[in-house]
Amino acid sequence: MGYNSCFDIIGPIMVGPSSSHTAGAVWIGRAAFELLGGSPEQVEIQLFDSFAETYQGHGTDKALLGGLLGYDTEDERIKLAYDLAEEANLTYTFTFEENCLEYEHPNVAILHAKLGTKKVVIGGASVGGGLSKIFRINDEKVDFTLSTHDDLDRIIQSASELVGQ
Amino acid sequence: MDIQSTVDLLEYCERENKTIAEAMIDQEQEKSGRTKEQIFEMMKERLLKMQNAVDQGLTDSSTAPSGISGGDAVKMKAYIEAGDVLSGSIISDAMACSMATSEGNARMGVIVATPTAGAAGILPGVLFSLKKNTNLENDDLVMGLFTASMLGYIIANRSFISGAAGGCQAEVGSATAMAAGTIVELKGGSPREAVHATAMAMKSLLGLVCDPVAGLVEVPCIKRNVIGTSIAFSSADMGLAGIESRIPCDEVIDTMYDIGKNMPRALKETALGGLAITPTGQKVKERLFSKTGLVNQLGGGKDHASNNHGQSDSSVEPIEAGRK
């Protein structure tokens, strides 16, 4: 399912405990960080299905916040993300839902993030091994694979025009 | 070049007279445009991170923030050092290294996903045991990681590697299958023997559900990683003996996909079935997350699971002794 490199299989280097629920979630948060050009002031995070059921145990919540703070998957600050979000004046809400009707996968998060006058909505599914699929940016359906910094650059390049002022 | 089946893989290896690891490097060069040396160094970085995780885990007897794992790698190491191990040094060392990695993962330590974090113990387990017990060195182990990634690449693209999508068979199953083929190649077996070992390992774990207690990658995940190493060695020994899987490897992988698709949602990492809903599993969940009902109102759940590094959450009582 879209694995392209040996480093999608052996990797990422990451803080535990789950590649799909921690590392993949960091990338989804990170996509929002990059598109906003910084940590949001406010974010609403929707978690679906397996993400909603098991986020506490996997640190999915901390991973998403870590990504929103601009961290990499191996950044040991992720486990302190709640405190660090507070320090960065990032306010957040989490909501929990069953299945995501927009994208069929058990590990879906949709982030609605704001920084100043910029707003971005990111829909992402973490499909395993730390690899995520970005399926929505604002109201556009997109299909980006995200597991490396190169992927991130590609997304910013082709999607920055979607981020409204 | 994009190898999508073990049939393609064996055709390539046999035509070009290459190992599986070399085939992976060839493909990576072609797809990424990086040089062989760059690719090797990137993989070596991962091996060294794995080594760190093993070294740390073998000396860290602290409990995970959840209170439900930790300290067993140190126990296993002491048991091995006492010198009367039933399964021999190669398997018991693999067990200890695997446990060290998976316990570190539960502590939110740095690990390398192989192919996932939930299954991150198996490959380091077999690799660092081979290093300790045979004459293989780090550069050989790096080549082993290329063998493993090619096998994992085929599995991931034909089927799945996450417990949420396909159950534990997709995580521990895939990692064990990758490790089995890797051991064969590191021992000088042919690509064909490696692929048969991969198939035999995966067959042994078909149907395994993902049922983590409280949704944590700890119970039963850590011990499944440990036992995955011995299945990998058994399958590798069969492969090296010339024993073949009667069902071809690609068909085994496709079966894993079919089984995963048919597996109920409760048994795919939702913590709604299996061991997660045993009386003890439920009790753990209640203790750990008794405050989560408040998460929405509190706007984020600052209240729960404050996973301070290396310290037990003081609100968490230890799991009952009877659970062990």
UniProtKB/TrEMBL annotation, chain A:
<comment type="similarity">
    <text>Belongs to the iron-sulfur dependent L-serine dehydratase family.</text>
</comment>
<dbReference type="InterPro" id="IPR029009">
    <property type="entry name" value="ASB_dom_sf"/>
</dbReference>
<dbReference type="Pfam" id="PF03315">
    <property type="entry name" value="SDH_beta"/>
</dbReference>
<comment type="pathway">
    <text>Carbohydrate biosynthesis; gluconeogenesis.</text>
</comment>
<protein>
    <recommendedName>
        <fullName>L-serine ammonia-lyase</fullName>
        <ecNumber>4.3.1.17</ecNumber>
    </recommendedName>
</protein>
<keyword id="KW-0456">Lyase</keyword>
<keyword id="KW-0408">Iron</keyword>
<dbReference type="InterPro" id="IPR005131">
    <property type="entry name" value="Ser_deHydtase_bsu"/>
</dbReference>
<keyword id="KW-0479">Metal-binding</keyword>
<keyword id="KW-0312">Gluconeogenesis</keyword>
<feature type="domain" description="Serine dehydratase beta chain">
    <location>
        <begin position="5"/>
        <end position="97"/>
    </location>
</feature>
<dbReference type="InterPro" id="IPR051318">
    <property type="entry name" value="Fe-S_L-Ser"/>
</dbReference>
<keyword id="KW-0411">Iron-sulfur</keyword>
<keyword id="KW-0004">4Fe-4S</keyword>
TrEMBL record, chain B:
<feature type="region of interest" description="Disordered">
    <location>
        <begin position="299"/>
        <end position="324"/>
    </location>
</feature>
<feature type="domain" description="Serine dehydratase-like alpha subunit">
    <location>
        <begin position="16"/>
        <end position="276"/>
    </location>
</feature>
<keyword id="KW-0408">Iron</keyword>
<dbReference type="Pfam" id="PF03313">
    <property type="entry name" value="SDH_alpha"/>
</dbReference>
<keyword id="KW-0004">4Fe-4S</keyword>
<comment type="similarity">
    <text>Belongs to the iron-sulfur dependent L-serine dehydratase family.</text>
</comment>
<dbReference type="InterPro" id="IPR005130">
    <property type="entry name" value="Ser_deHydtase-like_asu"/>
</dbReference>
<protein>
    <recommendedName>
        <fullName>L-serine dehydratase</fullName>
        <ecNumber>4.3.1.17</ecNumber>
    </recommendedName>
</protein>
<keyword id="KW-0312">Gluconeogenesis</keyword>
<comment type="pathway">
    <text>Carbohydrate biosynthesis; gluconeogenesis.</text>
</comment>
<dbReference type="InterPro" id="IPR051318">
    <property type="entry name" value="Fe-S_L-Ser"/>
</dbReference>
<keyword id="KW-0479">Metal-binding</keyword>
<dbReference type="InterPro" id="IPR004642">
    <property type="entry name" value="Ser_deHydtase_asu"/>
</dbReference>
<keyword id="KW-0411">Iron-sulfur</keyword>
<dbReference type="GO" id="GO:0003941">
    <property type="term" value="F:L-serine ammonia-lyase activity"/>
</dbReference>
<keyword id="KW-0456">Lyase</keyword>
